[in-house]
Amino acid sequence: MRICLGLLAVALATLTLPCPPVNASLSKFKLFFGNPPGLVPNTTVAYGEELYRGFHQLQANGDWFIVFGSCVGALIFYGVAAWRTTCGWEEVYVCVIELAHVLIAIFHEIESPSTLYLSTGNQVLWLRYAEWLLSCPVILIHLSNLTGMKDDYSKRTMGLLISDIGTIVFGTTAAMSPPNYLKVIFWFCGLSYGVTTFYLAAKVYIEAYHTVPKGICRKIVRFMAWDYFGSWCMFPILFVLGPEGFGHISAYGSVIAHQVLDITSKNIWSMAGHFLRVKVRILWWHSAISTCSAGWPTFMLEMSAVYDSLVKLYLQIHEHIIVHGNITKKTKITLAGEPVEVEEYVDSNEVDPAEMDQVQDKGTQALAHRQSFLVMRNRMQQKGVEVRASLDNSDRDQAENGMGGGAVTMGQWGMGNKAVGDPGAMGLGMVTKAVEEPAEKTGPLEPGRVILCMPDVALVDFWRLQFSSLPAPFEVYPAVGPDMTLQLVQQSLQLGGPSFCDFVLVAPDFLQNPSPSGLVGRLKMMGMRVAAYGWQPAGPMRQLVESSNVDGFLEGPTAPHGVNRSQFSALVFRMQQLKKMASMAALGTPPSMLPPTTSQHSTAVLASSVPTSLQSDSIPAAFPGQGLGTPTTANPLFSVMNSSPPSPLSSRPTVPAPMGAEGEAVLMQQLMAEINQLRAELQQ
After folding, report:
1. Which residue has the higher pLDDT, 122 or 84?
2. Which terminus has fewer CB within 10 Å in the chain: N or C?
3. Distance separating alpha carbons of residues 77 and 81, to the nearest angstrom
4. Distance, CA of 331 to CA of 72 (rounded, Å)
5. Where is the protein found, in the record's own terms (predicted)?
């Protein structure tokens, strides 16, 4: 608002100045014309030192080549950026329009229709206003989406476009009007539209400042705001001072001033907007400015100081999401006297626990197919940067293609932002690499068995459906509460040892006690693999699951998506790999100790050994951290009339049982073959 009021005051003061004749202007600025003004023939100009204080003297239209060189250099930079990382269409479009404007101005600036010669004697640079109409709306589109994360445009974008077009239309009309009250009226109409544009732009900058990650990104937004308001507010002032207004400066002085503003308001601003979206190293900017600053004016030295603060590698919007995920925190700010709620991109590891209720994980489902994210992800992976595995399309598609298709949802991998060597990831065993690198560690699944530890019966059917969607048949044995789970595990150990059951899938309700006396600790002491679900990228559930010392964990299920099938397949595969490793550790066990039972007999014994008395009040309550002292109760998931547990895979072939009747030599050969196969998989 202060800028707008100052602009209005300067404009009113300018209107009171007397308009000097053309010859006086020529002698003052030392501009020499070969022909009288108003005529079209060739014109030769040599610039004086007073107008170009701090600049090297240029001849004829040589100043246009500076703008031409900046446009060509920017286009080359954008091309390299598009190949290496990403580049928005807005900055490229504006640069192309600016380059076309320069080329036409160099050869045909004073020719019609680039310059309109009206019957009133006015000369209107239509080429300039046409370039504004083509480039300024795109700049405002870029402004309304500084982060590059929005796929659509809001009502504010439409307001920016309408007000900007109104400014240009009324400004052009004022330039064509004779120097009387009509020119003043149209100028003030355009100014009112311009004030509206500035007001909406200020709201965008304030909101963007609180949206982008803290640090260098906010400095970039602040620099872009100063560049935008500082350069755009000069255009109406030059209009009043130039030949379009009241002729206080010559046409050539106006052209040169507009060239400087075009570089700052378009090229530099677009480059800063590109910096905000893409990770770049801008040391070369610093060196270039330091080299050339000796002969440059003071404002360029100030700009060099601004760039000095940007001389570092920084984490921008796209890279922030690739590394930390699409996690935002709601923040309330006051915008134009009204409370506004904005979403700031944050790292879940740095969020205050008291603000966890304001953190939201939007997921990367809508971003995983953006080419810019995929290119940047590949580049970062080549440099050894650990990225968000949920954005790894190739790995996820490869895992899904081996599952027979079907509906697939997207989510995050279990490790979240933790690195393999991060202390926060300790206790997860070798499942760390399996969760973060599914493409390298996911293989064909084998038929198996799993025990579910649920707080109630609500999720049993859901998990039965998930296991039935796997490419290999699985027998699912549900249990309600920790005591029932321990009972089933003991029976499975009696039937076939630790290799009889693949793993136990535990609900997060039973992870509150990470000590050896807790459910997870007791299961691992019995030699059983333990996996958990319910992990979240932000919030208390993340710390709860990661500190529970389970062998693997899974995000979700979340409504309405459920769980990521590729994550689920990778987790089951890892559990089977851990089971094989446990079998290798027991190579010294005599074969006679392996039970020579068939799969059908083992399944029947495991099911029939569970009490079948059904009590309506015998289901344990579903509450976090249920102790292990709950009295043993009947499993309400088994029918009273049927002693065998229901299986969603009854139509599939049964799981082959261990061949305990084979000789010791044959068994050793099989175990050695499995060892060699496992070693080959781990070395890949």
Report:
1. 122
2. C
3. 6
4. 41
5. Membrane
- How would residue 185 be classed by pLDDT, with cut points 50, 70 and 90? very high
Tell which residue, 197, 172, 194, has the closest CA to residue 183: 172
> Rounded distance, CA 4 to CA 7, Å?
5
At position 357, the amino acid (one-letter code) is D
What domains are defined for the chain? 2-278 (1.20.1070.10), 327-361 (no CATH), 406-683 (3.40.50.2300)
Encoded amino acid at 71, one letter: C
Which residue has 């307001």 as its token pair? 159
Whether 61 has a pLDDT exceeding 70, the answer reads: no
**Structural tokens at position 256:** 């040169």
Q: Is the pLDDT of residue 530 over 90?
A: yes
What is the rounded CA–CA span in Å between residue 170 and residue 177?
Answer: 10
3-state secondary structure of 682: helix
**How do strand 327-335 and strand 359-361 relate by DSSP bridges?**
antiparallel
Scanning the structure block, which residue is given the tokens 């569970």?
Answer: 610
Residue 193 CA: distances (Å) to CA of 131, 196, 198, 359, 634: 18, 5, 9, 38, 76
Strand partners, 453: 479, 506
User: Could you tell me which residues come within 8 angstroms of residue 301 by beta carbon, excluding any fewer than 6 positions away?
Assistant: 293
What is the sign, positive or negative, of the torsion defined by CA atoms of 446, 451, 457, 459? negative
Asked if residues 176 and 118 have their Cβ atoms less than 8 Å apart, the reply is yes
Radius of gyration of the chain (CA): 36
| 3-class SS of residue 388 | coil
pLDDT value, residue 112: 83
Structural contact between residues 110 and 243, judged by C-beta atoms closer than 8 angstroms: no
DSSP string, 195-211: HHHHHHHHHHHHHHHHH
Please give the Cα distance from 450 to 111 (Å, whole number).
82
DSSP per-residue letters across 569-634: HHHHHHHHHHHHHHHHHTTTS-GGGS----HHHHHHHHHHTS-----TT-SPP--TT--TTSPP--
Q: Residues near 539 by Cβ (< 8 Å), separated by ≥ 6?
A: 356, 359
Determine which helix (DSSP H) or strand (DSSP E) holds 87, and give its type and residue range. none
491 is written with which tokens? Answer: 């029976």
pLDDT of residue 345: 64
Query: What is the rounded (10 degree) CA torsion for 240, 242, 244, 246?
Result: 60
In 10 A of CB 515, how many CB atoms? 9
**Distances from the Cα of 63 to the Cα of 66, 252, 257, 433, angstroms:** 5, 11, 11, 59
pLDDT at 320: 62
Structure pTM?
0.42
Cβ-proximal residues to 71 (8 Å cutoff; 6+ apart), any chain:
95, 98, 99, 102, 267
Q: Which residues have C-beta within 8 Å of that of residue 121, sequence separation ≥ 6?
A: 38
Query: For the packed helices 155-176 and 126-144, what is the interaxial angle rounded to 10 degrees?
Result: 170
Average model confidence (pLDDT) across the chain: 66
pLDDT at 199 over 70: yes
Name residues whose C-beta falls within 8 Å of residue 141's C-beta, 6 or more positions apart in sequence.
90, 153, 157, 160, 161
Question: Which residue shows structure tokens 């009204």?
Answer: 338
User: Tokens 């603000």 map to which residue?
Assistant: 355
